[in-house]
Amino acid sequence: MAGTDPAEEIAGLTSKLASIEAVLDPDAMRTEVASLNEQAADPGLWADQDRAQKVHRRLSYLEAELARLADLNQRLGDTKVLFDLAESYGDEPTKEEAERELAALRSEIDQLEVRTLLSGQYDAREALISINAQAGGADAADFAENLMRMYLRWAERHKYPTEVYDISYAEEAGIKSTTFGVNAPYAYGTLRGEHGTHRMVRISKYDNQGRRQTSFAGVDVMPVVEQTDHIDIDEDEIRVDVFRSSGPGGQGVNTTDSAVRITHLLTGIVVSCQNERSQIQNRASAMAVLQAKLLERRRQEEAEQMQALRGDGGRAWGTQIRNYVLYPYQTVKDVRTGMETGNAVAVLDGEIDEFIDAEIRWLRQNGR
To answer: What secondary structure does DSSP assign to 171-237, as a single string?
Structure first.
C-alpha cells in the first residue's frame, strides 16, 4: 500500500493476525495435536487403516497450521526490525527487501483470514471432486483433463494428499470423466465454490482447419461422508457392475475384472472406481463416492429450500462459473466474483488461490 507507514501497516497486520488466531484458537489446536499424537503412538491404530490415515492427516494439518501462525508472527517482528535497520543506516537494499516481505505477509495473512469464513456445516471436511466433459467433443475431453491437472497441481502446491478413484478416457484425447479426493481438512469448504460449469475458448488442436472452439466441462465438489451423516443405501437401491479397467494402467490393473460401477437406481447417479487391484476395495471406494454425491445432493436441496424461503426462487448459483479464454487473447474470469487474470497458463497450472479466496468471500456474502 503506497504511502502507508510500514510501522503502522505492520501493527495493523499484527492486529489482524491476532483476530484470526482468536477464531482459529491455537490453544485448542495444540490440545488436539497432543491427543492425536497419543493416538498415533498406539500400536493398534493401524488395525483400522482408514482411521489411522485420518488421524495422521489431521495431525499433519494441525502441525502445519500452528507452524504457519508461528512463522507469520516471527516474520512480522523480523520485518519491523528490517525497516528499523534500513532507516537507521539509510540502507536502500534492506528497505527493498523489507517491502517485499511486507507485501508477502499482507497476501498470506489475507489468505489466512479467508479460512475464518469457512464455518458451513461441511466446510471442515475433506473433498471429492468429479469432472465431466460436456459439449465440445475432443476439445471438451481435453479441457476436462486440463481441469483435473489444475486441481491436482493446486493440491500439490499446498502439499494436500490426493487420491484418484476413477478416470474414464476419451477415444481421441483427454478424459470423459474423473473422480478424485483431496484429503485435507477444510478441502470441501475451500473448493466448493469451484462447483459448476467451466468454459474454455481456444484454437482447437483437433480441428484440421485450426478454428476457434468453445468447450465445456462440469465440476462437482462434494464433502466426504462421515458416520454421523446417516447416508444409508439399501442393496436393492443399487446395481453393481464389474468390468476391466481401461486406459493407462500397470501390471494386473487392466487384466482382471476388478473395476466396479455402481448405479443408484433412485436418482440415476452412476459412480465407478478402478484404482485398486481388488474388486472389494474398488466397491468400497465407489460406495464412498456414491454416498458423497448423495450427501451433496441433499445439501444442495436444503440450500435451494433456504434460498426459496429468502425469496429468490431457489435459483442455483453453480451453473457457468468461470471462462478460460486462450484465443484471441488470454484471460481467465470468474463470472460471479469478477476475479480476472491474464495469466491463463498459470491458472491451468494450479495457481487458483485468488479465485478460490474470492469465491469463499462471495459465497459468505451471499449466504451460500
So the answer is: SSSSEEEEEEEE-STTHHHHHGGG-EEEEEEEE-TT-TT--EEEEEEEEEEEEPP-GGG-----GGG
Long-range contacts of range 158-163, CB-CB < 8 Å, 24 or more positions apart? 158/184, 159/64, 160/184, 160/187, 161/57, 163/275
Chain CA centroid to CA 368, Å: 17
Is residue 249 a contact partner of residue 282, using CB atoms and an 8 Å limit?
A: no
Strands 270-273 and 196-203: unpaired
Task: Please write the tens of the pLDDT for every residue from 194-211.
Answer: 999 999 999 998 988 889
- Among 288, 295, 233, residue whose Cα is nearest residue 265: 233
d(CA 180, CA 288): 12
Q: Tell me the C-alpha distance between 226 and 222, whole Å.
A: 12
Domains and CATH numbers, the chain: 6-115 (1.20.58.410), 127-231+312-365 (3.30.70.1660), 235-301 (3.30.160.20)
- How far CA 32 is from CA of 36, 37, 60, 69, in Å, comes to 6, 8, 12, 16
Name the pTM for this structure: 0.79
Residues 6+ apart with CB under 8 A from 323: 199, 200, 201, 331, 332, 333, 335
pLDDT tens column, 254-290: 556 789 999 999 999 999 998 877 888 899 999 999 9
Distance CA 237, CA 211 (A): 46
Nearest residue to 84 (alpha-carbon basis) of 95, 73, 69: 95
